[in-house]
Amino acid sequence: MASIDSSPRTVEDIFKDYKARRSGVVQALTFDVDEFYALCDPEKENLCLYGHPNGSWHVAMPAEEVPPELPEPALGINFARDGMNRRDWLALVAVHSDSWLLSVAFYFGASLNRNDRKRLFSMINDLPTVFEAVTQGKLVKDKPTMDSGSKSKSSTKRSIDGQVRNDLRPRDEGYVEDDDEHSETLCGSCGGNYNADEFWIGCDICERWFHGKCVKITPAKAESIKQYKCPSCSLKKGRLN
């Protein structure tokens, strides 16, 4: 476990930690599900599923510290394994994992102010839950972060009509196109819903998405931007200087 001194403190750091832990849990309950299932032997002691900041996962007994350094996952997930339908059991573990991931994120965010807590939850809420990934097959990858380069370049694709626009998720082998999920994304400027026929661009700082027309960015201009900062984040940086 991470020490208190090394715990993430900013909204961006906490969200990065959340995404990594979530990725590990999703990996365990989907791509590595057979290995995970075998490790949850009902004959063993109380077991928990942990997701780690490096994106890995493991099944182990809970921490012995009282109180624990971090909130603990659901205890004894292995005991119900053989008494339930496999799919239902995985869904149950997924629900408890979602609760644990939120509790860890807001444990780290205890000192955040009201607006930052709201922004943190909004960023988390933009991702499919572990439960959705397990039960609905929404195995989409997370939105690109500051570390993965410019969203405006890495996630650009051509639509059916040939116009260049920004996709809300990068394409890869785990990608599933989901217009219903995309429709929940709102423009950070006008509040309008996502439309696949319109050009969108994501801010590399706050990770919000915008209509290109709302922030006066064209597809051609986006191609030359290495790191896009929305008007709000640009203004904040100007004030700090």
Automatic annotation (TrEMBL):
Keyword annotations from UniProtKB, A to Z: Chromatin regulator, Membrane, Metal-binding, Nucleus, Transcription, Transcription regulation, Transmembrane, Transmembrane helix, Zinc, Zinc-finger
Function, as annotated: Histone-binding component that specifically recognizes H3 tails trimethylated on 'Lys-4' (H3K4me3), which mark transcription start sites of virtually all active genes.
Keyword Transmembrane: yes
Taxonomic classification: Eukaryota, Viridiplantae, Streptophyta, Embryophyta, Tracheophyta
PANTHER family in the cross-refs: CPG BINDING PROTEIN, PHD FINGER PROTEIN ALFIN-LIKE 2
Oligomer and partners: Interacts with H3K4me3 and to a lesser extent with H3K4me2.
Family: Belongs to the Alfin family.
Region (Disordered): 142-183
UniProt note: domains: The PHD-type zinc finger mediates the binding to H3K4me3.
GO BP of this protein: chromatin organization; regulation of DNA-templated transcription
Coiled-coil region(s): none
Organism: Vitis vinifera (Grape)
Stated name of the protein: PHD finger protein ALFIN-LIKE
Chief subcellular location: nucleus
Record GO terms (molecular function): histone binding; transcription cis-regulatory region binding; transcription coregulator activity; zinc ion binding
Pfam name, any one: PHD
SMART domains noted in UniProt: PHD
Gene Ontology annotations for the cellular component aspect, listed alphabetically: nucleus
Transmembrane segments: 89-110
Positions of the PHD-type domain: 184-236
Compartment annotation: Nucleus
Compositionally biased spans, kind Basic and acidic residues: 158-174
